[in-house]
Predict the 3D structure of the following.
Amino acid sequence: MNQNLSSYRIFYAVANAGNISKAAKELYISQPAISKSIQKLEECVGCLLFSRSSRGVVLTEEGKLLYEHVREAFDTLTLGEEKLKRSIELGIGHLKIGVSTTLCKYLLLPYLKEFIQKYPHISISIACQSTNETLRLLEEGKIDIGLIGKPESLKNIHFDFLAEIEDIFVATKDYIRNLRTRSITRNQLLSNSTLMMLDSNNMTRRYIDNYLQEHQIQVKDSIDISNMDLLIDFAKIGVGVACVIKNFVKNDLANGTLIEIPVGHPIPKREVGFAYRMNGKASTSLAEFIAFYKRRR
């Protein structure tokens, strides 16, 4: 398109009015400016678009052909403006959230349930992956916000604290009893059990590995498991000792399905919260979600 949109708007107004004077009043533009714009457009397309007479102007055959396309274009723009206005009035939008499967189930879902009830016109997309992957997607602008465990470095990322989580080791009564029948003491339970943990790409796993190394706890046998729910399920059937988040097994601990294994040095609690880019302009949907969870905390 060799002409800017204003030239076609003038052409469209003149064609509808059939008179340059009327079009000038509608557009609040002088008649000479309209005549000059039409002349430039005709020079650009290489043909006359209007037949002029003392009574006004009439589209030529070439002008009628161009007019049909211009009319469709302006109808589409008008429709787009109306839809945009309606979406703003109704709060229609799209929010992309990154979160691990575990945090999604135990922490995010309660927030989402209430948020969707309050903002039903905002659609939600969930990308489930590790905290490290969520941070990468945030930096690349592929998601709007993430629910993550707080990393050591937060370059260009704003972090809003949501809750503390505590990692513990759990097993069934029978599994612990079997270990003790082999004269394994309390301090030796972790070293002599089958220790089940999240896989090595997970930030939680790295945190636990650092804890084990710091306190010189040697693990003889271990199993990597992809998510927290499976860790809990495997622990319940007596496969071994699972490293889990205490908040997520509180019912199992309360009813005795799982037993917390005491350790000499408690694992320091960690922070989880919502994170988003500091240097990005927040969409209306993101701004609504941020305001929502800050009110709810």
Remarks:
- The chain has a mean pLDDT of 88.
- The longest helix spans residues 61-90.
